[in-house]
């Protein structure tokens, strides 16, 4: 009836349609729905209670895709070191398909940055080998399709990427030789041109890894050149390639950085899969467990655990700063040296050094510096002996340090020149002669042919017997009779 027709043709209620649209949430659609601003997306993620549900996973997937695309798009040679920690901060295992697609898309759009993208893949490959293998497989498949379709721009871009992956040793060198053999099997202007560009990019690495294989490729180039069936322009390009080989591939050498390289042995004819399913969102029933697992891997790569432990140590107690550069020690030595050299007499030098308030445990710096300065003089100066005597009588700590210095100098006396040896011997002779050092320190001296060297015998001779004015050696200062009785003392035996 007409009434029924009118009823059937009436448009649906707007309120019902609105409810259906609300029920169909954009974040659950295949493409991710309409654009959602980042702040609104963060708010939506915060409002969701079920952190393991498909709705929340979809949101994190979209955020991961945008983050990886943004990082890959802004990478260049100068900021790659800063981008890599941010990239490892994202879940690269979950987004490996997204990363592979983003890198290949960016390389295709900007072939001049191919070396940067290859370097990025090489670094990621050291931590996640499955990512490097996935990208290598997809680039090989891309080259195969372009080669069959005679798509030269895509073929050139793919071969350039493969060349740099081989140069970064993500791909095996046999892959490069297989590709060159395929391109030169039925030479045409385009295939030879692509082969020339490929050889320019990775020829240096092939020369190092497979010199015989590269030689056979160049023999094939020589044969094509002699046949003369290709265009003159390409012939000139082959001649230029030979000149570049003669110059050891100058400008196309080596890696950008030292890496723990992992090489994937994938043949050009091998059956490989692109694994395109990794590019599409799939709900993960064990989402939270996988996120925790990657969090642990990320912390290990970026060294976050060590930083947290250091922060915990700092918060547990007061922060203590340890000077590992020994700046204070160097400054103390410099001050002691300048004081010794600028003073008129030993009393002035001793007074200045006592005013320094040398910290406890640093007495060894004074004794070492005093002995070194004395040994550097052209002739022995009594000034050093008197200064050493003053400090030995001032405190037990200095006497112990001079005792250790004597034993150290005697054991290493063979390293000193004659002049230094004489000065050091006279310096310690003064200390023993004035009883500033205990004579028991001489226990280190053993007068046998096996236990002494020519240097040590000269040192002992100067220590006991040398002549000078005023007397500073033991024989002159004490006299032979007194010296003999001191040596024969039971305490010296």
Structural notes for this entry:
This protein has 24 helices and no strands. It has about 500 residues and is an all-alpha fold. It is elongated, with a radius of gyration of 41 Å.
Average pLDDT figure: 81
Proportion of residues in extended strands: under 5%
What Rg, in angstroms, do the CA atoms define?
Answer: 41 Å
**C-alpha end-to-end distance:** 139 Å
Shape: elongated
Number of strands: 0
Approximately how much helix is present in the residues? 55-70%
Largest sheet: none
Secondary-structure element pattern, one letter each? HHHHHHHHHHHHHHHHHHHHHHHH
Assembly category? single chain
Helix count equals 24
Descriptive tags:
493 residues, mainly alpha, 24 helices, disordered N terminus
Summarize the structure.
The protein is mainly alpha-helical and 493 residues long.
Task: Produce the secondary structure layout.
Elements: H1 2-9, H2 14-23, H3 38-47, H4 54-73, H5 80-89, H6 96-109, H7 114-127, H8 129-149, H9 152-167, H10 173-185, H11 189-209, H12 211-227, H13 232-246, H14 287-302, H15 304-316, H16 327-342, H17 346-355, H18 363-376, H19 382-394, H20 396-411, H21 418-433, H22 454-465, H23 474-478, H24 480-487
